[in-house]
Amino acid sequence: MAYIEVKHETRKFIQGDQETIANHDISFNVDRGQIITILGPSGAGKSTLLNILGGMDNPTSGQVLIDGTDIAQFTAKQLTTYRRQDVGFIFQFYNLVPNLTARENVELASQITHDARDVDETLRLVGLADRAKNFPAQLSGGEQQRVAIARAIAKNPKLLLCDEPTGALDYQTGKQVLQVIQDGARQTDMTVIIVTHNGAIAKMGDQIIHINDAQVQSIQQNPQPTPIADIEW
Ligand SMILES: Nc1ncnc2c1ncn2[C@@H]1O[C@H](COP(=O)(O)OP(=O)(O)OP(=O)(O)O)[C@@H](O)[C@H]1O
């Protein structure tokens, strides 16, 4: 059984008399431990889909089975537990707490889960052991994003969701961050979903889901993902 099964997922937003269909009849499967990329232009519906997978939003219709359980049917309380225990998030703009050190930012996440990873070991994993006492403002963009990755991974999530994780970074730093995400995934057996509008980055996925105009345009199996060192954009 696939770890994620999205079946006919649709999300409509209604504002006044205007209806926007952000996701229309979306279906795909993801195996446990896969890295998949969701590729599409601005406004295609990628973030909407990621929010639904992360339990931050509910679809209007359809099923979102995670490990066999339909989270589309979850109550608000069940969704909170799911987000807390099972999901790590990485966003374009890091979202670190500015008055906490790198270590404290990571600790914050590890404290709310049962099965957290060791904070110092996780900082080592992202190559930031020696910056643990620094505040976000004392770190570069790439380092801040690595703290955000450590924070997400420290929860030991089953699912890591990344929304344009390199969107605010330069080319070289962006590649380092992708490498950290990939290494983290391979070492922890997380399932990873990366949203991007960048076709070159999408090639790091074991599966590339092309989304356009709210719909799945194609699903490309990618048995030989491009090594990050070889990705160029
Ligand atoms: N809360 C909302 N209320 C109304 N419309 C929304 C809402 N969230 C998203 N939309 C609309 O749904 C569509 C898809 O948006 P979404 O943010 O999912 O796209 P995206 O592919 O992630 O785009 P981007 O790459 O620019 O972030 C857009 O037309 C957007 O305006």
UniProtKB/TrEMBL annotation:
InterPro entries: AAA+_ATPase (IPR003593), ABC_transporter-like_ATP-bd (IPR003439), ABC_transporter-like_CS (IPR017871), MacB-like_ATP-bd (IPR017911), P-loop_NTPase (IPR027417). GO terms for molecular function: ATP binding. Keywords: ATP-binding, Nucleotide-binding, Transport. Signal peptide: none annotated. Pfam families: ABC_tran (PF00005). Residues 4-232 form the ABC transporter domain. The keyword Transferase does not apply. Belongs to the ABC transporter superfamily. PANTHER family: ABC TRANSPORTER ATP-BINDING PROTEIN MG467-RELATED, LIPOPROTEIN-RELEASING SYSTEM ATP-BINDING PROTEIN LOLD. This is ABC transporter ATP-binding protein. It comes from Levilactobacillus angrenensis. The lineage of its organism: Bacteria, Bacillati, Bacillota, Bacilli, Lactobacillales.
